[in-house]
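As described in the Methods, two query proteins were run sequentially through the folding procedure within a single session, without resetting any intermediate state between them. The first query and its resulting structure tokens are shown here.
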Amino acid sequence: MGIFYQTIKGDYLQRSRSYAFLITLAITIYAAYHFVPAPDENYTTLIITGYKGVYNSAWAGHISVLMTTTILALFGFFLVNGAIKKDIDTEVGLIVAASPISNMRYLLIKFVSNLLILLTISALAIIVAMLVFLIKKSGYPFLIKDFLLPYIFTIIPAMTVVAGFAILGEVFLRGKGILQGILYFFIFTTLITINMGSTSSSAITDIFGINEIISSITNQIDTQFHERIKDIALGYTITETASYKTFVWNGVSWSFDYLTSRAVWIGMILISVCISSFSFHRFDFKTLKIRRLPIFSAPAKTNYSKIEKIALPAIIPAYGILPLIKIELLLMIRKDPKILNILSFALWVSLLFVPLTTAHVILLPVLFFLQVNKLSDLATKEKAYRLHYLTYAAYKPLQRVLSAQILAAFSLLIALAFPVILRLIISSSYLNIIQVVNGTLLIAILSISIGIISDGKKLFEVFFFLLTYCVLKRISAVDYLGGIPHPDYLGKMLSIFIINISLLVACVMFRARQVNNL
């Protein structure tokens, strides 16, 4: 048991001491501060038309738990997914394969490590929510149970499910990270849609446990105001008017059925992880179809003659950047599987025929996100394949290599956005054209800068997914392509341009530091 504990501790510390994890914690603090708006603020996170709970301890604690559970249930999967793949990439898996550790124990270690990462982030969010409640001084007493009980009964079981799904996805869909993400997103959206505020769903079908809290709130509104609340949603929404009724809600009375359902889901996830150990590859990839050259082959017969220096072609130094851009583009284009490239091409063609607003607001962000696998490791693949000793020591690595990576990413995205740009030119929407180019440059620089700063690709993948999700929800403040109307369109364009310059400077500074410390 001591070795089991020490292995979990080492894995957790190794993952929690990365730049990506620290940046995630910083984002968590910022987001948690805005989870529960004060009564005088002009936005809401639990959308119940015409009603709002008073800002007491129960409301602050449970709404914080709702937001934390929903956000981490979605984005937490992408944050912890890839733990086994990392052992493959770093070749730690070969050591594991040669050790006496069993498949079941190894998967349980990764499962517990995933769970601890998610619980650390969620615990920080709840601590921030407590501090915010104390700072805002609503006039109601602070009751710590209103924060701890929903954390124990809702967040911990939900994060257990997410951590387990991440392990099961890596075991049964090995090497298919994009398919894992798509499948999980489909499962998540389906479950949330079915259970959100539904009175007919049972506790056992509410995998993430958020419907218990929502149903308690809606039941009180229905009883107190003789309503039948049906439309309810979670998310940041600007409230145009302050005309709403307030009510005092004192928290959830946790039912035995609900608590039993949480225990059932925890048990099912643990059993599933244990069963998946029988299908775990244990880093044995002999079954993969890899075309190998024969080890023992007859050397080709070559008639050697005297080498004359004068007969050799002249050495012409080539210090240009175009060959590097070409190589980076080829590496990106050839990286994804054919089916994904076919899907991207189909979306690219559809940009020419669907309504311009649909193409600009929906299809183009989706098309960009499908390139996440190409963009995420653009600046980190050298370290992943241990080639950074060569690239950092190359001639002018900042002016040539780094610039080639940025220009290659920008060129690829501009080519994908060309149908929308062409249609905007025809419609004389020149500001929108500038913003599409501006937003395209943002994604290119963002992929490079986050990769360099966090020294990995996971943070960019999660952030890009979050950004795309918000754009598809038509949140104009984060619409980097400019398709959604905004009251200060020029101001937003200027803000994104300033962000591009800032990220570019940070990107150059961090890469220069890496080159100098080689």
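Immediately afterward, the second query was submitted; its sequence and tokens are:
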Amino acid sequence: MFETIAGVLVTFAMTALWFTAGIIFAGLPHIHSHYKLRRARTLLYWLVHIALVLGMIWGLLVISLWVGNGWLFVEGIIKQILPIVLIAHAIVVIWTLPRLNNLQRLNHDLLSADARARLAHPMLALPIIAAAFASGITAFSTFLWQPTFPGFVDVLRLAALLLLALAVPSIVVVRRYQSILQEKFVTFPLWRRLLSFVVSGLLTTIVIVVFLVVNATASLHSSKLPEVSDMMNHHWLDEGGGTPTMLSGRNKHHDHANMVEVAALTGDLSAPADVRYELVAQKQEILLASGAKVETWTYNGVIAPELRARQGDMVEVKLINKDIDKGVTIHWHGYNVPNAMDGVPGMTQDAVKPGESFTYKFRANQAGTYWFHSHQQAAEQVLKGLFGTFIVEPAHEIETYDVELTLINHDWVTDQGLRTAFVNDDLMKRMRMESGKRVKLRLVNANQLSEKYMLQGTAYQITDIDGSPIQNPDLLPDRTAFRLAAGGRYDVVFTMPDRPVLFMIGDDANSDQPGVIFYTNSPPEQPDLQADSGQFDPSRYGQPAENEVTAVKTFDREFTMIIGNKMGFYDGNFTFLWTINGEVYPHTPTFVVKEGERVKTTFINKSFSEHPMHLHGHHMTVLKKNGKNVKTPWVTDTLNVNPDETYEVAFTADNPGMWMDHCHLLDHAAVGMVLHLMYDNVMPSYKVGAGTGNQPE
């Protein structure tokens, strides 16, 4: 992240220096004394050279980013940004610097036409202004349009923007130069020159805005989501460099006899249900422990209902929509259900409208801690409370616990402002516990961002990540903090000592955050908060995961997801976009696989935000971080990728269907940070879009 932030600061400084130099150059023909000319020349000399040095520093930062993070972090910069910066700076070195040096030999009358012509020569001022605009484009591109896989047209478009930005200054500078040569130059009062400068700046701004508006108009129309579509990008099928699939080339119109629809991928439903639940989606006013009122959307009128099953059970859950107008679904987050049971509206089912119902039925093959939530307009519906926990006990208990507590945290918008709570406990909770008791905390982060947690008062173990057990988990020292991705889950185990134990969100600087105090005799009135002693790192914990992908040397398919950000339109609205390979849904690629293949995906985060990447229907094994093998590969379904980080993960394509792969910061998914994993023998069954009522996020 250092190179990115430093690059932004350097390019903004370059822009300021070049524009300052440009203003001074523009005033040279109005200087009447050699003393003032010497002062101006000295100042320009330093401004230009400092700006050139900063340009070299920026280039070194780009090289450092390339060496440290790989080519894909810088390919857009080098292909699209670097050419205009190099050309602008090269012209300054070749044309402007020699003329600037020659000004010291200007000894004759400064009011003469020859002297003024040398001071007003276009190749003094225009290269400086060009360098200023090139630096400004570089600085703002980091925030406004991070180039990813730019084509020749993209390079030309940026060059055209630079040339158009120079149009008005070029006209002004050239006309002034010609008037001097024709001895028609008049030195106007300062206010007149300032007015001319402001007018030129406004005209330049108008030219730039018109150019951007013309380009934005085209993107505005292309950003409109189709009224009805099948969510699959038929125009960008990425096969990951593997062998041809049934969707390759001419096979896009393959005989459907060998294909199956998503709706048919239900799994074997013939066995009777071992456990049954009924969930009613409804609006409900809830009171938190503090008395704060929340207007929530709930399942069964309570916050985060808990469903339980035993590994191997046939689970049946009937969803009824009482009064959620836009419809609801249930997505089983992290649970590898058959595709038709995944709960994604428009992909695996239609949204359940008010008065309707839908029954989910699947075999509980995975033990562990999971959760469920609506995937219809998820950014809104999860925020309002349409979620719960799904706990699957192992078929054969390996270890028993005296106390087991499920804690799912969420931020609520209440009548008392924003409140963070575990379920509905937004205050510090106290629980009496005998020393020596074994305690298991099942933690679920249902927030929009990753959260930091801390256990203080005893050593502990993290035994499971996203429902997957860790082999031989180490004992973590007292006050070791850990961070959990949005949508992620950790199982935390400790033995109660003869002193209080505190579990809470945040750290010693967050005394107002909720948590649990476990105590043996009398509860402490106020927890004695202490700074954390370290940070948990799953890449160096326990024993390495061993499965069918950890020993693979050559994968059947390899995909790359470059995460970036830019300003642009989404469905006709101007907003901040989070992109995958430079695009947002529905223009993101469709990853195509065959059943049984070993697949690798590389995440590259060039953006300024973390992104918890969540693949439906599969678990990913983390193999590499920042280009290096992790010491202990681990299994996850929601991987938090921080800015300037890269991860290589792998999975086996063993669950046929059409699956979402998206950022679980649901506000990001709502503006298109979504793509789809498609098995080549599967056909869509449902439609999305405003015309269907299905709005997955």
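The mean pLDDT is 91. We note this only descriptively and draw no conclusion about the first query from it.
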